[in-house]
Amino acid sequence: EGKLVHKDEAHALIDCPELPAKVYTDQKFEAENGQTIWISIRPEDIDLHKEKPAHRDTHNWARGKVKEIAYLGSFAIYHVQMENGRIIKSQVPAPYWYVRGIEPPTWGDEVYLDWPENQPTPLTR
Prior knowledge:
The chain is built from 1 helix and 10 strands; from the N terminus they run E-E-E-E-E-E-E-E-H-E-E. By secondary structure, the protein is mainly β. It has a single domain (2-123), classed as CATH 2.40.50.140. The strands form 2 sheets. Strands 3-2-1-4-10 form a 5-stranded antiparallel beta sheet, with no helix packed on it. The chain is elongated.
């Protein structure tokens, strides 16, 4: 949940106090500056990283610790708990870590989440 800070024909910027960065989206929706907006992002559209992505300074990222991991064959769902207690889920394909030669994060590890601008779906009610 957040407040619409800026909106034009091409994009919108939403300030969500529970996130360390603003949410930037290129989705079309009707709203006025200052209006309360809820953001929905599917878990498979949220990328998980062991280090903060260099390209994410001002928007579309979060940080937390791995609280739970559900291994489901071809993918795993990571439950990442932010400092404020909110859980964000990220669905990661099984070979993701292996093909990059990276040890996958485990319970208690600090991780970073990010998502592309075309994924946040703004909801106005």
